[in-house]
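User: I'm new to structure prediction. If I give you an amino acid sequence, what do you actually give back? Let's try with this one:
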Amino acid sequence: MASWNEGLRDRRRRETRLEIHTAALRLAREHGFDKITVDMISAEAGVSPRTFFNYFPNKEGALLLGPTEVPPDLAAEFVAAGTASPREVLADVTRLLVREMADNPPERATMHDVFALAHSHPPVQAALLARIEGFQRSIADAVAQRMGQQPEDEVPSLIAALALTAVRTGLERWSREVPQSAEDDSPIPYVERAMELLRTLSAD
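Assistant: Good question. You get back a string of structure tokens that encode the predicted 3D arrangement of the chain. For your 204 residues, that looks like this:
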């Protein structure tokens, strides 16, 4: 029973987090980021400001969703693959990130609005970069475990940075495109193209 209740609790937390994020983004679209407040977002999402702060530190953070760490099961599978060259590890990291994206696909309109807000509002850009930096540390940790190094060592840090740069580049390009069909509305080809370009540029 406890396990079942915990599953319901986790699901409700995810739903509440999404409701707050959706409300923040909707209000930012309608009124402009500078004019919205935590109280406005909370009211729109149907939660108290206290509940808001249980999920997000500020209104900038509420605009952002997405992974903050590599899922433990994917990280364990990645590490268990064993030692390999930095080039092979980078390729495996990019495949891991694409796989995570396939499991939790973003919405194009949402990503478009988030990137647009980040480009025009320095506080949103700072929050986005902080979120990316946290995710990058998680990737570097998994890479370091696999390579028998420390997360702050040069190679794990660089591999994590390169992989996330490719992901962000692909996502930004995808968010600006007009979808041709529902079946075509996936960021993965754009991310894979950025990763392939990265491999081409780094080839001997």
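You can read the tokens as a compact description of the fold. Here is one thing that stands out. The first helix runs from residue 2 to 31.
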